[in-house]
Write a structure and sequence with these properties.
five-stranded antiparallel sheet, 2 domains, 196 residues, disordered N terminus, mainly beta
Length: 196
C-alpha cells in the first residue's frame, strides 16, 4: 500500500473514531426511587432518529434490552428529555445501564446500586466479612448490637449516616456473630454474619 492510500485510510479511521466518541445521548443518570430505578437522559438536537433502546446489565458486559422505542426520536432544533422507570431492577446489587440510538450511537455506561430492604428490613453488604462490616437499614433504625456465639455483647454501633452502619471489625476474632438492630416500629431485626 502506497503512502497516499495509508494517509487516506488513517484519515478515515480518525474520522470514524471521532464520530463514534460523540454521542447524542447526554446527561444520562439513574437513581433509585422507591421500588424503581428512574433513568433520565437527553437526546441532543440534531437529525431525527428511528428509535432507541434502554439496556441493563448485572455485570457491565452482557446487556438485555429493557425498553425498545421504535418511533421517531430527537428534534432538529432542540434537545429532547427522556425519562424511563425500570420497574424490575436486580435487587441488592449494582445495575448497569446504557442507551442506544439505532444503529450504533451508545451512551456512556452508568450504574446504580438498588437496595431492597423489604425482605429482611436490612441489607448486609457482604458475608463473610474480613474487615469492614456494612449494614444498610431503613431510616428509622437505632443501635446495632453485635454478639459473639456465647451471647456476649462485643460491639454496639450507631448509624454513621441515615440507615448505614459501617465499622472496621478486623479486631474481632473469627467466627459467627449475631446482631440485633433496633427498629422504630418496635420489632427488632435479627441477623448473623461470619467474620473471617
Amino acid at each position: 500500500m502506497d503512502l497516499r492510500h495509508k494517509i487516506v485510510l488513517l484519515s478515515f479511521c480518525l474520522i470514524s473514531l471521532k464520530s463514534n466518541s460523540q454521542t447524542r445521548i447526554q446527561e444520562l443518570s439513574a437513581v433509585q426511587y422507591n421500588q424503581n430505578v428512574i433513568i433520565s437522559y437527553l437526546i441532543s438536537a440534531g437529525n431525527s432518529c428511528t428509535g432507541y433502546q434502554i439496556l441493563r446489565s448485572n455485570d457491565s458486559l452482557n446487556f438485555d434490552v429493557i425498553f425498545d422505542y421504535a418511533g421517531i426520536c430527537g428534534e432538529s432544533t432542540k434537545s429532547q428529555n427522556i425519562t424511563y422507570s425500570d420497574e424490575s431492577p436486580q435487587k441488592n446489587r449494582k445495575n448497569y445501564y446504557k442507551v442506544l440510538i439505532q444503529p450504533s450511537d451508545y451512551s456512556n455506561l452508568i450504574s446504580v446500586f438498588y437496595t431492597d430492604l423489604a425482605e429482611k428490613g436490612y441489607l448486609l453488604m457482604q458475608n463473610p466479612i474480613k474487615q469492614n462490616l456494612s449494614i444498610v437499614s431503613d431510616l428509622n433504625s437505632g443501635d446495632l448490637k453485635i454478639y459473639n456465639q456465647m451471647g456476649t455483647l462485643t460491639l454496639s454501633l450507631n448509624p454513621s449516616e441515615q440507615g448505614l452502619y459501617h465499622e472496621d471489625i478486623s479486631l474481632l476474632g473469627n467466627g459467627i456473630y449475631y446482631f440485633i438492630l433496633e427498629n422504630a416500629k418496635g420489632k427488632p431485626l435479627h441477623g448473623k454474619f461470619i467474620k473471617e
